[in-house]
Amino acid sequence: MNYKLKNKNCIVTGASQGLGKAMAVLLAQEGCNLILVSRRPKPLKIVEKRINAKIKKKIAFALPYDVTKKDAPKKIIDFCKKKFGTPDILINSAGGSRPTTWDATEAQWEEGMMLNFTALRKLTTEIIPLMQKKKWGRVINITGSVEPREVNIANAAKSAVHAWAKGLSRVVAKDGITVNSISPGRLKTEQILKRRHPNVNERKKFIKENIPVGYFGEPEDLGHLAVFLASPIARYITGELIHVDGGMKRFAH
Ligand SMILES: NC(=O)c1ccc[n+]([C@@H]2O[C@H](COP(=O)([O-])OP(=O)(O)OC[C@H]3O[C@@H](n4cnc5c(N)ncnc54)[C@H](OP(=O)(O)O)[C@@H]3O)[C@@H](O)[C@H]2O)c1
What we know:
Mean pLDDT: 97
Radius of gyration: 17 Å
CATH superfamily: NAD(P)-binding Rossmann-like Domain
CATH class: Alpha Beta
Distance between the termini: 31 Å
CATH architecture: 3-Layer(aba) Sandwich
Low-confidence stretches: none
Bound molecules: NADP nicotinamide-adenine-dinucleotide phosphate
Strand content: 15-25%
Helix content: 40-55%
CATH topology: Rossmann fold
Order of helices and strands: EHEHEHEEHEEHEHHHE
Shape: globular
């Protein structure tokens, strides 16, 4: 399939590992120019190097930066403009689970909401006018479960992303911009294998009880959907929340 993504300028946050990295690699294979953002320079540089070696062209550039910093949107956009021009595609993947007690501190709430909602909302808000000028754009948010098992700050933040993205999608649709969210279930990344389910026996039990297909997914299981949603082919899909979870979601709404 020709996704018609050649030379599209794409920003991927959380690109040093996991889902962000998988999406960046797949988008590079489709000919996108890539700005890779996450905090730690070393793993990010490795992803940059690997992509450029694979494509045999310098199409990926690493920008080690914290997306929660006040000036992050400006830094990221200026870097993209300098390397390629204004962004066509924004993939918001930086984030992480924040399970906590019911009485978490204000500082914990602020950190979790900032990382998983406010930072991506601010970055998107700065980028939308640039997409409006081109009359084309794609925003894809990697969110997560909103069926809480406990108090998890990320659940509340991801719910906020879903509601905000739905509203935004309706307002910018006339400008050729789509806004969609993808909710992963359990895909094999560091946060799932090392932090959420480090114990192999617990992992097996969790899979048996919760995941109808019977296994944790690969990051690419989500990456292929992101490539499709990023492409011009997906122009009629917007405001959606799509689950990539092997059937884990149990509620019909
Ligand atoms: N994997 C799953 O099944 C699953 C399930 C539910 C939700 N999710 C969501 O999917 C997204 C990607 O998760 P993942 O599994 O790929 O997690 P991961 O392996 O932990 O990767 C997270 C990425 O985000 C970056 N990051 C974290 N904080 C950042 C910050 N303040 N500024 C810039 N970059 C930051 C990390 O790099 P640095 O540490 O170098 O900054 C890393 O590249 C997250 O939003 C997560 O909540 C994933």
